[in-house]
Write a structure and sequence with these properties.
The chain is mostly helical. About 70% of the residues lie in helices and about 0% in strands. It contains ten helices and no strands. The chain has helices at about 1-20, 25-45, 60-70, 80-90, 100-110, 115, 120-135, 140-150, 150-160, 160-165. Helix 1 crosses helix 2 and helix 5 (about 100-110) runs antiparallel to helix 7. The two termini are about 30 Å apart.
């Protein structure tokens, strides 16, 4: 599911870059839902039905925007994400899974427009380097402080019970 979220954000970024004018907030929400639906169908073995997570009155809007997004993306859905690049870097080192610190930084990277301008391989290299260099939580805490200074809402959204256990105290 992590890769699905990263793909959905990437699809939404690409769509908005090509179709920057949305009429209202409802259309923006529908575009985000359409991108998530596309990402789920592309990435998940058994994606949920649209009926399971979109209100009945909005389903047609999501389906229309799904078609618009696919057309705007020229049906090019195979993109590399930070999650893909992390897995590749770790596989090259003989490691089979990411750890919580790497996942946290990968998730935080979704919130920063400057970071999202970088190639996924560059972001993944930075994440792996930060976690390996510091070994402990110091690098993660510094990264969180940097993110909070730039976007305070990102910390509140991401720091659920999983990350609280990882960090102990917040910056």
């Amino acid at each position: 599911m992590r890769t699905t979220i990263h793909l959905a954000v990437l699809y939404l970024d690409l769509y908005l870059a090509r179709q920057p004018m949305l009429q209202d907030q409802l259309e923006a929400v529908a575009a985000a839902q359409a991108c998530l639906f596309i990402a789920m169908k592309f990435e998940e073995i058994y994606p949920p039905d649209l009926e399971d997570w979109v209100e009945r009155r909005h389903r047609q809007d999501v389906l229309k925007l799904e078609a618009a997004v696919l057309k705007a993306l020229d049906y090019q859905l195979a993109h590399s994400t930070v999650e893909h690049q992390l897995a590749l870097r770790l596989w090259e080192d003989g490691v089979t899974t990411t750890n919580d610190k790497m996942e946290l930084l990968a998730d935080l990277s979704l919130f920063d427009l400057n970071i999202r301008q970088l190639r996924p391989s560059e972001v993944a290299a930075g994440i792996v380097g930060t976690v390996r260099k510091e070994g402990g939580n110091e690098g993660i805490v510094l990264s969180l402080k940097w993110m909070v200074e730039r976007n305070p809402e990102s910390l509140h959204w991401l720091c659920d019970q999983k990350y609280r256990g990882l960090l102990g105290t917040y910056p």
